[in-house]
Amino acid sequence: MKNKILGILLMGVLVLSLTGCGIKYPDLEKDAIGFQTGNYIDENDDGAGYLTIEYNGRTYMPYGTLKGSLKEKDIDKCIGYIIQNENSSSIIDKDNKDTRIYTLIDDKENNFLMEYYIGTDLMNQPSFYRSIDTKNKDINIPKFIDSLDYNYWK
Question: For 36-120, where are the E strands, in sequence order?
Answer without folding.
Answer: 38-42, 48-55, 58-66, 75-82, 99-104, 112-117
